[in-house]
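Inputs:
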Amino acid sequence: MSITAPQGFTAAGIAAGIKSSGNRTSPPKDLAVVHNVGPHFRVAGVFTRNRVQAAPVKWSRQAVSDGELAAVVLNSGGANACTGADGLADAARMAAATAAHIHVPADDVAVCSTGLIGIRLPMEKVLAGIDDACEALDGDGDADAATAIMTTDSVPKMALRTASGWSIGGMAKGAGMLAPGLATMLVVLTTDADVSSDQLDGSLREACRLSFDRADSDGCMSTNDTVLLLANGASGVTPTPEEFDGALTALCQDLARQLIADAEGAHHEIRIEVVGAAYEEDAELVGREIARSNLFKCAVFGQDPNWGRVLSAIGVTDADFEPDMLDVSFNGVQVCRGGQIGEDRALVDLSGRHVHVLVDLHAGDHTATILTNDLTYDYVKENAEYSS
Amino acid sequence: MSITAPQGFTAAGIAAGIKSSGNRTSPPKDLAVVHNVGPHFRVAGVFTRNRVQAAPVKWSRQAVSDGELAAVVLNSGGANACTGADGLADAARMAAATAAHIHVPADDVAVCSTGLIGIRLPMEKVLAGIDDACEALDGDGDADAATAIMTTDSVPKMALRTASGWSIGGMAKGAGMLAPGLATMLVVLTTDADVSSDQLDGSLREACRLSFDRADSDGCMSTNDTVLLLANGASGVTPTPEEFDGALTALCQDLARQLIADAEGAHHEIRIEVVGAAYEEDAELVGREIARSNLFKCAVFGQDPNWGRVLSAIGVTDADFEPDMLDVSFNGVQVCRGGQIGEDRALVDLSGRHVHVLVDLHAGDHTATILTNDLTYDYVKENAEYSS
């Protein structure tokens, strides 16, 4: 149960024939619609910070700008990015076709696309698929929708948080080009809580900052990243801001963990926890620099607690720290203490899937945790072969 | 012929027993000395910008600060980084032992180390090796010295430029942790030109900016990078500044190309040429962002001219450009034109070792070229296994 668990939302995921393989269904599901049936149609959206933006991002940014949205149409099998004016027209036609079925204006429908950059979508199949999906809209359609947006994902990603009288659900896709400023990532969140549009926007931005923005699989920011939060107030319940923000952030962190757990070719899920930072920004910067070190990531793949590579990554940042104060632990063993050799690295066991790297900057009280994974043969293989 | 080709320089490279394997000699050479016999002892040095600096970097930065240097002692088999006060004492002992042989103060000797971070050097072997190397100093020792500083390098890197009556030679090592602000890289340059200390420093900084700083193999900046330029005026010739700078920059670019050609696991050497930039800094920024995209690098390994990944890398920079003006060519085929699909990507042949990516930002007249390579199974293998 995920996006259709909150009251007043339906969804569908169908096979439109946009792609010929993938996501373990046959024929593969590749088109989804999520419908908010009201009574309210509030929305907040966060989009990629990449300056090269796909057509659906340009469309959806406009669609959510008035704070109202009735539906989202999503496809895998093509990102509709770098497709020019024709691509933007295709995104508009997808919105209009969906809007016609649910009797709303086209600009009340957001569009999300994912797949290869630089190819046009097969619009005949897409439009026929939108007809099929709108007819299939259902209160149990969440798993089908989550499946239809998969690309190199090996499992659909769904999450749900329930509270007293209201709930919030989410689905996500993303397995590569997964980096800050959002991942290559499409996320739709739904809630029947009665929350104002103004609050929604601030809550979503903060939740993204503490979750998706701190998932950095391969340092590559996508052209299509989109997170949409739809709120219809169907429960009649207005949670406190703290209650709502807490549930929303926990939900997003759950989905972010699922994304990193399924990242392309990953053999290890790595949690880089930076403590003792003078500022939260420093902690995030240091964690991200480590997460982006290919040498560090290869070392973890090789089950090597190579703290020298951690220190050399920290050293290129302008965070507050003294090199001879740095402590680094791998899975609880402090292999570097005061910038020098600490406990015996042979004590570290990196044979399991989960790796915890703890860095203490000894410069303050702030912390941040970045999620990433190792760099493996399988990552290279998937990304050398993906578009050929 | 390289560093001992200019008059008044001798060198040696010997096996001190610091490491047990590597660089194709048996026992492996792992310690080198370069001696400037004068008449002048001018020097300029450029060091890693990493804030975590190895002991030999701390020592050598001080040693060259008075503009005079008589010798360099170098070892592979251990970086002497993150080794604290003891490590700094080890570097000082290496300098003092070398200085005693050639009858100069210890602070006229620079020290360079390369290898694994976070282990102490076996000083008994190192000091005995310094004795052997100093006794072997010879006007033909350049190849032995270049071999002794290899780590995962597969070939020694040497270069020479000769002019009317004077010459400039260089040796380099570096194959991984190869990134801006210098690579994991040790470089010693020698010249018998009669050039003032003041001019040497400016010339070396500019030459590094246009060569080593634009070689970005894996985005990882090392703790040990050092470039030293020794000038003894033995030729009695004072070249014009333009003549000297031209030869020095060409020499450094030659060595930088050799480093990228031999980078760990590389199957392709990639030259990313950015033109049409509003500023040279923009061109360099864009080139470097592309060079650091793992997705782009995997695509080249897979012989896929994936211009979408190039555009998504450009899009995260703050360089001056309009997304719908970008042109991208792979080996002469303009697969992206005006930010959209251009010529047929099937026309691109990436089966050869050399790949030329040309990006036109259409925002001005400035250019920069970044050298990098692809991300391969072999890179992952070397860096997963390196320290275990």
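The radius of gyration of chain A is 21 Å. Flag for discussion at group meeting.
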